[in-house]
Amino acid sequence: MSSSVVGPRVLLRRLREVMAEPEAAQERLDKIVVLIAANMVAEVCSIYLLRPDDMLELYATEGLNPGAVHETRLKVGEGLVGVIANEMRPLNLTDAQSHPAFAYRPETGEEIYQSFLGVPIMRAGHALGVLVVQNRARRRYSEEEIEALLTTSMVLAEIAASGDLDDASAATRQIRAPVRPRHFEGLALADGIALGHVVLHEPRIEIGNPIADNMPFEKERLTSGLAELRSSIDDMLSRSDVARGGEHREVLEAYRMFAHDRGWAEKMYEAVATGLTAEAAVERVQNDNRARMVRITDAYLQERSHDLDDLANRLLRILTGHTDTAATGELPKDAIIIARSMGPAELLDYDRDRVRGLVLEEGTQNSHVAIVARALRIPMVGQATGVLDTVDPGDPVIADGEAGSVHVRPPLDVEQVYSEKVSFRAKRQAQYAKLRDVPAVTSDGAEVSLLINAGLVVDLPHLDEAGAEGIGLFRTELQFMIASAFPRMTAQMEYYRNVMQIAGARPVVFRSLDIGADKVLPYMAQSKEENPALGWRAIRMALDRPGLLRLQIRALLRAAEGRTLKLMFPMITEVEEFKRARALVAQESEFLERHGHPLPGKVELGAMIEVPALVWQLPALLPLTDFISIGSNDLCQFLFAADRGHPRLAGRYDPLSPVVLKVLHEIVQLASKHNVPVTLCGEMAGRPLEAMALLGLGFRAISMAPAAIGPVKSMILSLPAEELRNELLELIDLPDHSVRPQLAAFAAKHNISV
Ligand code: PEP
Ligand code: MG
After folding, report:
1. In whole angstroms, what is the distance from residue 229 CA to residue 224 CA?
2. Ligand 1, pocket-test mutation among 474, 520, 608, most atoms within 8 A of CB
3. Averaged over 113-140, what is the pLDDT?
4. Any idea which of 318-327, 413-422, 507-516 has the lowest mean pLDDT?
5. Alpha carbon distance 128, 56 (integer Å)
6. pLDDT digits (tens, 9 = 90+) for 496-527
7. I want to staple 740 with a disulfide (CB 3.0 to 4.6 A). Which of 395, 624, 656, 749 is the partner?
8. CATH level 3 topology of 182-203+327-426
């Protein structure tokens, strides 16, 4: 064996000649083992390939008993070959038989060979088989020999993955990646259950030809690919949304570090020097990294390994010119999109009729893509760490957006359980659908107005589907969040007009731009804040930079043309702020009137009650407002001084605590005293037990996610509201953590579905 990299180059050239011959795959393999054995001065060379039943089968050999071909089989993890496939790393032994995993197979006649070198045949992170050389004499194979064998195995991976071997010997033999079921627990980000097939948002690159024709050319390609990769990451880092910091920036910083890592680049250049094309070299090094990744237990290092893997994928896409996402390609009817992360606009690029579910390795409750997934009613699971490495396009998968779990290649029994769950949910939905036109009236005759929260045009059909009375909260910032630049006044106006037209006679309560905190506009520079939720956000920002708010008000006033415009302002903290916002509306109305534009028939202005300080100013505020709406998400976060997005605090305090209920009761009482309509539009309105408590406190209008209307209405129909009120008012002075148990007992006693 030559001690330089010339060895594999010569071998690769010969392999290419073999590959070019018009032969059946089996004959090719038979020739290849002879070539490798000769080139490596080995007495034995064998190829084991993984079958769909997870057995490694001897497909070709030079040196072992030919009768063992297609007879000798080992389980993954069994014998030396099984260990290599399982651990996806080479095994270099001077005395194979003394290794604890050695499994004796008499039919092979291998007992006379002492030294053993085996490497995995890898493709897209999976071991497809094992390539082995053996010698009689005891010896340790050199690093160069290991490298040579790894490079050669890239060519075999090509053959194994090509599918040419399907009919090589028996029709049933099919080479595929491991088919073991896998299960991941993540975060439930959008409700619903989806059964379908894997589509990788960023498709993996299939390498056509791993053997280089022209080595200097391949080196050059690698150099320019790396340069493009580095500059694309620098560009991303300088984008304003990223430059400000946050999680995304950290990921990109790590990317940059790896993209400039000399060790990584050198390994790839070395692989090119052994005779591989630039893309095959990237994959060779990526395989090593992946094999290491499996063994890393430290979460931080594992994360960094994922980054490196991602980076290699990016480089492969650059080298092959495949930069499009799966949205532009052919999709199966039941696509479940899998990605590491995704922006909201990227999700909107997909054909909604074909996307059943979304699974991300990242993603949080308030990420924009999650907001869009909920709006599109696409079940979504986030934080499914490691899922990308275990799936192949077309794999069956279940995304459970109710429990936050993902089942890859689910066993039949799991699939059955889920099919039943889906039909159960469908039945329940059908029951809710029957309630669509039934008025929401409690069992003792109180009428309740059920409204939906919306923010995108795709939300609007839900008005009809859910049978809602109107939109209680239209989050206008979503249009801004998914845009790539500030929407112009005319674009805003068209948008609002469209919303009002679709809503028809039903009221729509627009909320002025609520940006800042977790709602970031990618194109707007925002300074980093210590406490963004308590920072320069919502109405504070709007009043300091009134240009933006005035433009929005103008667009709303013009869009309303003859109708009633309902507009409310978020995060009002003192009466003065409401007065200033109201003054801007007056100013814009005058402006439009002066310029002869038609105005709304009526303008109603409201304040959101989200900041506790405002509760004590209600006697002064209420005479100035046409309505108020409680943003209980923010109100609770500020009452408890507990970040609403912090996963560790998620269940710590209960909105059904006496203190929250007491504050809410006080607000309803005051609103009724001043004859000012009050609604509540935070998440608690959409949970039946919480909604029940709200009705007990005296709320008669609540606004929620469209999917919650059915369950909440079903609760209302069997609720004796007055009786609950009497019981509840007894509870709100308790010093307890929560009165949830008492409310649940009330529901159970009265057979109320919550
Ligand atoms: C709230 O805070 O309850 C609310 C409805 O507004 P958002 O969730 O958009 O902050
Ligand atoms: Mg809010």
Report:
1. 9
2. 608
3. 92
4. 318-327
5. 9
6. 999 999 999 999 999 999 988 767 776 777 77
7. 656
8. Glucose Oxidase; domain 1 (3.50.30)
